[in-house]
Amino acid sequence: MPSLLLLGRDHQRYGSFASYSITDGVAAAISIGGDPTSPSLAFKDDPESLNEDALCVAVDGPRTGVAIADAHYGPESSHVLVAQLHEHFVDGVPRDLDALAGVVDALGVSATTDSETALLVAVHDATSGKGFGLSIGDTSLVIIGAERQGRPENPRNHRYVSAFGDDAEPVTFSFRTRPGDVVLVFTDG
Questions:
Q1: Closest Cα to residue 112, out of 74, 158, 84, 141?
Q2: Do 107 and 160 meet the contact criterion of CB atoms below 8 Å apart?
Q3: Contact present, 104 and 170 (Cβ < 8 Å)
Q4: Beta strands 130-136 and 116-125: pairing type?
Q5: Which residues does residue 161 pair with via DSSP β-bridges, in sequence order?
Q6: 21-62 pLDDT, tens per residue?
Q7: 134: Cβ contacts below 8 Å, ≥ 6 apart
Q8: Of 165, 158, 167, 55, nearest in space to 114 by CA
Q9: Is the pLDDT at 63 greater than 90, yes or no?
């Protein structure tokens, strides 16, 4: 199964990005951004780990699973949660929202940390065009297409989690794509 796990700690050079093709039509990229004077540095707990984002993608037949997280006060929450999701996705991308919710409910950060993260987890079926997901925080899933406005498909808020399920309940969402649409998932950083 084609898959990819990208942790921000490995991508920390300002002004550059790493981009990877997973399969035909599926790609991922990660970047710390271009501004080393950004106000977001006030939320970085560890000067050795400036990029606290993490993402994973796995393609399981027609289904693509994706998770993206944007941490604050240290990378532990985003890196651990997304790495756990990657392990689950490699075993098989969930087929429905209930199965995805079960995977997300089983996640957790074992170490005590001040780190917290926004998290979005979604599955898209290329055959049916149907998708579903769970989110907490201000990460976004948008659909770009000829008849689309590029508005987030998922509800966004300013809540965060450190151990998923302990701090805030995820909001569920669903979406549908048409042939030619692009599904774009991203953080605000």
A1: 74
A2: no
A3: yes
A4: antiparallel
A5: 117
A6: 999 999 999 988 878 887 777 777 666 777 889 999 999 999
A7: 97, 100, 101, 104, 119, 120, 121, 122, 170, 171, 172, 173
A8: 167
A9: yes
Residue with tokens 């941490």: 71
Instruction: Please name every residue paired with 133 in a beta bridge, in sequence order, or none if there are none.
Output: 122, 173
pLDDT of residue 161: 73
What average pLDDT does the chain have?
87
CA 40 to each of CA 17, 50, 51, 77: distance values in angstroms, whole numbers, following the listed order: 18, 10, 10, 17
Beta strands (DSSP E) in the chain are 3-7, 17-23, 26-31, 53-60, 63-72, 116-125, 130-136, 140-144, 171-176, 182-186
d(CA 129, CA 118): 26
Tell me the backbone φ, ψ of residue 19, rounded to 5 degrees.
Answer: -125, 140
Tokens at 56, concatenated: 């994973």
CA distance 4 to 24: 14
Query: Residue 130 corresponds to which amino acid?
Result: K
Instruction: Determine the average pLDDT of the residues in 98-112.
Output: 83
Map tokens 């509800």 to a residue: 155
> How far is the C-alpha of 113 from the C-alpha of 143, rounded, in Å?
34
Q: Is the pLDDT of residue 152 over 90?
A: no
pTM: 0.90
